[in-house]
Design a protein that fits this description.
The complex is a heterodimer.
Chain A: H1 3-26, E1 37-40, E2 52-55, E3 63-64, H2 66-83, H3 91-126, H4 133-153, H5 165-195, H6 211-231, H7 239-282
Antiparallel strand pairs in A: 1-2, 1-3
Helix pairs in contact in A: 2-3, 2-7, 4-5, 6-7
Chain B: H1 5-23, H2 28-62, H3 68-86, H4 110-141, H5 147-162, H6 165-170, H7 183-218
Classes of the chains: A mainly alpha, B mainly alpha.
């Protein structure tokens, strides 16, 4: 589609959409859209719930929140800007992407500051005492992460960037130690333990033979062993060993197929939730959860 | 020495203490201390990343490189989010009358607003976009050409149908005693037996790989994380 043809198609669509939004949002007595109602939080509410809580429009004391209503508009326009990438790369998508990068970088920085630096560094620093030998030792331990942190930030300076290798080595070494233990304990040992199951399963009364459970356990054990045989490259995958490894490949293909299906379902669920946001919270065209009183009431 | 050996010794000591504390209960205190330092340094790493992002974008804007306008948007949204988060703008006062005691994520605060209406919608929409691309890639790549590809294709088809209402409806004519052959029944069998076996083998393989890589780092065999330049 040429640019001129594209403009001829998209301009009428944009104008009609804007007129539709204007009618829903601004016409008095119209259907309305995107308004968010809040009510004062009860006095016993904890600090994380602030002064106002989301409310239904028909609740007593509910008022429109201009900030949250603007937020729904911002969220809807950003959502549409990102969906526009399905057509082609365009300035609206790039704008939304730039906003996402900036906000997410700052989000993690702020979270790191309030959840990491303040409770684990600044508060202990403010409580340091230097009176006795023990207190001096504890204070030096408290100062160590500050020094390492400063060394890490040295990387931003034009010279002496190698100084950041020390704290980086600390991070890598600590992470390696934590991962080594957690993977060996949670994945390696526990997976092997769960795979060691009886191949002949008795009934619950202990007298009969549970064929289905036995077959299940046999298929499970055989599957794990055959997959591990495929992963073991120190032996040539030939002869009987090759046939076992081939069965392992079949198991793995079924596993990948199931994983693919779950990935698709997860993405479709996310897509549905975004569409639900657009049609429910923004446009008020649907109301599956009964968030608003029916029109006319 | 300063640039290679000491960093390796630091990595080896930190990792060894973590491992030793697992086997020696009296070393648990050291593990906690190192864990706390690790969390502080991870927070410093976020600061490093944020400052680096700001510097890169400033450089792009000052050099008027192509797309500098988007760099300006990134920088602006970064600074606004950082400012309202660090200064707890809009956070309601706590019982002492100060907003500094309240949570930076408190509902109704400016930081909460940015998370709720800018960060969350953009991230989830970008992930939702992948639904189209995964489906498109699958349509082009999935072919009934050999046993392995057929197994992959058939499993994806069965599991997708088995976990939806359509799957149950399509095989509703199958009698109850043969329910294992319905789409939901086959999905249960695949997920409970074959998928579990495959996932277990993969997890065992990953665990061995992670353990080997960690040991190479701690023993100084792998020092690639130190980089090659002089900095």
């Amino acid at each position: 589609m040429t640019t001129a043809t594209s403009s001829r198609v998209w301009w009428p669509i944009c104008v009609l959409s804007a007129a539709f939004l204007l009618w829903r949002a601004a016409v008095p007595g119209g259907p309305g859209m995107a308004r968010v109602y809040v009510k004062p939080a009860p006095a016993e509410a904890d600090a994380s719930s602030a002064g106002w809580l989301a409310a239904r429009p028909d609740e007593s004391g509910a008022v429109v929140s201009p900030a949250r209503t603007a937020g729904v508009w911002v969220a809807a326009l950003l959502t549409l800007a990102i969906f526009s990438f399905l057509y082609k790369d365009n300035p609206a998508y790039r704008f939304a992407e730039a906003v996402m990068v900036g906000v997410s970088a700052a989000y993690f920085m702020v979270a790191g500051f309030w959840d990491g630096l303040v409770p684990k560094l600044f508060i202990p620093l403010s409580q340091m005492e230097w009176g006795t030998v023990g207190e001096v030792g504890r204070s030096l331990l408290t100062l160590t992460p500050l020094v390492l942190g400063m060394m890490l930030l040295w990387r931003l300076l034009p010279r002496g960037g190698w100084i950041a290798r020390w704290p980086l080595a600390f991070i890598v070494g600590t992470y390696a130690g934590i991962r080594l233990l957690s993977f060996l304990e949670a994945d390696f040992v526990s997976q092997i333990r769960n795979t060691i199951v009886p191949l002949v399963v008795r009934d619950t009364d202990g007298l009969g033979f549970d064929l289905w459970a036995s077959v299940r356990n046999g298929l499970m054990l055989g599957g794990v062993l055959s997959c591990l045989a495929y992963f073991f490259f120190s032996m040539d995958h030939r002869g009987w060993y090759g046939r076992v490894a081939r069965v392992g490949v079949w198991y793995l293909m079924i596993t990948f197929g199931a994983s693919f299906a779950f990935t698709v379902m997860g993405r479709i669920a996310l897509l549905a939730s975004r569409l639900e946001f657009l049609f429910d919270d923004w446009l008020w065209l649907i109301d599956p959860l009964g968030k608003r009183p029916p029109p006319g009431l | 020495m300063l640039r290679n050996t000491i960093p390796w010794l630091i990595a080896a000591c930190a990792g060894s203490v973590i491992i030793a504390a697992y086997f020696v209960p009296s070393a648990q205190g050291w593990q906690d201390t190192i864990g706390q330092w690790f969390e502080v340094l991870a927070s410093f790493a976020f600061v490093l990343g944020g400052v680096n992002l700001a510097m890169q974008n400033l450089q792009k804007i000052s050099a008027r490189e192509p797309g500098w306008g988007y760099a300006a948007v990134t920088l602006m949204s970064f600074l606004v989010t950082l400012g309202v988060g660090l200064f707890k703008v809009g956070v309601p006062a706590d019982s002492s009358g100060s907003r500094w005691g309240g949570s930076y994520q408190a509902e109704g605060s400016a930081f909460w607003w940015l998370y709720e209406y800018a960060y969350n919608p953009t991230i989830s929409t970008i992930f939702a976009l992948l639904a189209f691309y995964v489906a498109s890639a699958a349509f082009r790549a999935f072919r009934w050409k050999n046993t392995e590809a057929t197994l992959l294709l058939a499993t994806a088809f069965i599991v997708l149908l088995g976990r939806t209402y359509a799957g149950a409806v399509l095989t509703s004519a199958i009698p109850e005693e043969y329910s294992a052959f319905t789409f939901p029944g086959l999905t249960t069998l695949i997920m409970g037996v074959v998928n579990t076996a495959g996932q277990r083998a993969i997890m065992i393989g990953i665990a061995l790989g992670v353990a080997a890589t960690s040991l190479k780092v701690l023993l100084g065999i792998n020092r690639s994380y130190l980089g090659s330049g002089d900095g």
